[in-house]
Design goal:
This protein has nine helices and eight strands. By secondary structure, it is an alpha/beta fold. The protein has one domain: Alpha-Beta Barrel (TIM Barrel), CATH 3.20.20.150. The protein starts with 15 loop residues before the first strand and ends with a helix.
Length: about 260
């Protein structure tokens, strides 16, 4: 039993669910309340939780599922002038991930800022190759995140699956894959299920949220998530699906419904 008296129950789900901490920071829940809700609802752990909460998360029997591998979404791996900084930060994050048993570190291409698509892809692959062996040795996945550049991250370069897949193929490491964020790629590309079926071998982690609004993945938005979850499961994926949404209503009920939706799928 955990310190809170309840054991997380993820049996039968196939894929494990995690919670992106930042989406619930301003919803009226204290950190202790959020951790307790995660345990009671059967979540596996948290992503992007502040380090000062890591001890409490682990004490509750939960995992620290993912953390940022380096700083800055705007200035990232596509910029040669940022490579030394990113490499240093990534190596430190890999060491910390080993210490805390964090399986996923999220990486960012950065914004274009005049960098061509080809040069950006080459630069991003070069940066990831510099740290891939360290990640392999530590058993840590470096997940290059696909983000939308239309709404949330103007100018972000890794904004299409083909661009991201090209980078992953160039790096050619089992420790470097894409973070396929369904919300972001619905905005940029749509055709989510076909993309998952065709490119899943390059996806190492998933995030979900409703569109439009980035709220809970319910029937108020355009994505029908149960078939998406079934498509992911059909690929053999048994990793984490991160609930990276901002609840429009009661945060605990939103988390409950999201977890149950994936479980039933």
């Amino acid at each position: 039993m955990t310190e809170m008296g309840i054991r997380p129950n993820n049996e039968g789900i196939g894929m494990k669910t995690s919670i992106a901490w930042w989406g619930f920071e301003n919803c009226g829940l204290s950190p202790d309340d959020l951790i307790r809700a995660a345990v009671e609802l059967g979540y596996a752990g948290f992503e992007f939780a502040p380090p000062e909460q890591w001890g409490a998360i682990r004490d509750a029997g939960l995992e620290i599922v993912a953390d940022r591998g380096h700083q800055g979404i705007g200035r990232g791996l596509n910029d040669l002038s940022q490579h030394a900084r990113c490499e240093s930060e990534l190596l430190a994050s890999i060491d910390r991930a080993g210490e805390w048993q964090i399986p996923v570190l999220v990486c960012f291409s950065g914004e274009r800022r005049g960098i061509s698509e080809e040069a950006g892809a080459v630069n991003t692959a070069t940066a990831l190759r510099r740290v891939a062996k360290a990640a392999e040795d530590a058993g840590v996945l470096l997940a290059l995140e696909l983000l939308n550049s239309k709404i949330d991250h103007p100018g972000y370069q890794c904004d299409s699956t083909p661009w991201g897949v090209q980078v992953i193929e160039w790096v050619d490491s089992p420790a470097v894959k894409l973070l396929y964020d369904v919300y972001h790629m619905q905005i940029m590309e749509g055709d989510v299920i076909r993309t998952i079926r065709q490119s899943h071998q390059h996806f190492g982690h998933y995030h979900v949220a409703g569109n439009p609004g980035r709220n809970e993945p319910d029937d108020s938005q355009e994505l029908n998530y149960p078939p998406v979850y079934r498509a992911i499961a059909a690929t053999g994926y048994r990793g984490y699906v991160g609930m990276e949404f901002i609840p429009a209503g009661d945060p605990v009920e939103a988390l409950r419904a999201a977890h149950e939706q994936l479980s039933r799928a």
